[in-house]
Structure to design on (384 residues):
């Protein structure tokens, strides 16, 4: 890399530019675990911990399925950021097309294999019959959101790479705000139980997918004026470019697979020890999830800024992007450690009123407190 820029419109990696990207991304990201916390709280205040256990297993199962394909977002961000750094309108369009094609193919595989996936998962978790029944009700409704979720990953990755975090924030807030409203209506208002949680998520994920595609369509029409180019199926299906996307996505997929296997193993071992342990683990994982999604804002900023620097062939900007995003990631790690020390116990009490679950969750809190500093480097290297 040299330090010569190509005249791109992508901003340099200053503290201001990092926060211009990371701020909206953090706000949009933290709404995702807040939604999980609402699911947990709605189920955690029902009289039987089996409801909480059923949602916990269902959420881990979908994390394994959907976040296994999280490379659709991360890979898309990197390629779009490089195209944006070069001022390449065709690259912006073609990367979106390749990502959506992969999303359609992969979601079709998930839907075709939904029954054997469920059988394997419930065999591995070894939960009680009641928990498995509840988790099954959740799973067989929400699985039909697979095409929407994978396409949503592509749209979010495209918006992050195109450095339009404000649009990504609005779409994510719509997704999670609608989900929370439907959660409360379906479960508390209509008494649908765990099926209500699943239907709320299904409807919200499809609506967010359609909204994301609409927003990107508007941005691409403006980009066609500023950057030129036009849609071409032949260029979208270019074998060399498609192979490059698959190669990057393969590495991200393997990383994600190992990460999710750790969470799945934890949930499976908790299920084998009983519904109380399973429920307590689910509550503590909300701490980890909230911290991870918030701090991932700097990883997303690193993806966009590092990709832009690579696209511009600018070594100085590359180093500045790495340095600045890492500084802020460390600051946020300290903030979360202090927050969990001060507010950990009240949060547990907010999420459940079952005394036996609270007791176990209190014992597990030190692990949540240690997690921010233990994991900070994996988040940053992931983004870079």
């Amino acid at each position: 890399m040299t330090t010569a820029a190509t005249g791109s419109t992508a901003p340099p990696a200053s503290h201001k530019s990092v926060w211009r990207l990371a701020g909206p991304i953090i706000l949009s990201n933290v709404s995702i675990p807040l939604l999980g916390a609402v699911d947990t709280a709605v189920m955690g205040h029902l009289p039987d911990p089996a409801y909480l256990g059923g949602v916990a297993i269902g959420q881990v199962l979908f994390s394994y399925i959907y976040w296994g394909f999280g490379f659709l977002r991360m890979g898309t961000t990197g390629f779009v950021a490089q195209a944006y750094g070069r001022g390449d309108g065709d690259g912006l369009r073609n990367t979106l097309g390749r990502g959506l094609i992969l999303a359609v193919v992969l979601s079709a595989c998930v839907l075709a294999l939904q029954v054997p996936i469920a059988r394997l998962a419930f065999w591995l978790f070894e939960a009680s019959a009641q928990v498995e029944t509840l988790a099954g009700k959740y799973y067989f409704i929400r699985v039909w959101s697979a095409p929407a979720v994978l396409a949503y990953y592509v749209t979010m990755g495209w918006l992050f790479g195109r450095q339009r975090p404000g649009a990504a924030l609005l779409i994510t807030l719509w997704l999670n705000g609608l989900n929370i409203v439907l959660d409360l209506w379906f479960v508390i208002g209509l008494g649908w139980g765990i099926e209500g949680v699943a239907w709320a998520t299904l409807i919200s994920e499809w609506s967010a997918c359609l909204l994301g595609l609409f927003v990107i369509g508007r941005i691409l029409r403006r980009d066609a004026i500023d950057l030129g180019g036009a849609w071409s199926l032949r260029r979208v299906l270019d074998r060399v470019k498609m192979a490059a996307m698959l190669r990057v996505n393969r590495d991200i997929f393997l990383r994600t697979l190992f990460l999710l296997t750790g969470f799945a193993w934890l949930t499976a071992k908790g299920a084998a020890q009983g519904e109380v342990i399973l429920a307590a683990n689910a509550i503590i994982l909300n701490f980890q999830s909230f911290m991870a999604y918030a701090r991932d804002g700097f990883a997303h900023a690193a993806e966009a800024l590092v990709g832009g620097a690579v696209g511009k062939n600018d070594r100085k900007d590359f180093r500045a992007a790495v340095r600045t995003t890492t500084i802020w990631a460390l600051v946020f790690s300290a903030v979360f450690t202090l927050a969990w020390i001060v507010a950990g116990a009240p949060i547990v009490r907010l999420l459940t009123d079952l005394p036996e679950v609270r007791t176990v969750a209190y014992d597990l809190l030190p692990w949540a407190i240690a997690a921010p500093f233990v994991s900070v480097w994996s988040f940053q290297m992931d983004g870079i």
About this structure: Residues 1-10 have pLDDT under 50 and may be disordered. The radius of gyration is 21 Å. Residues 65 and 111 are 11 Å apart (CA to CA). The chain has 14 helices and no strands.
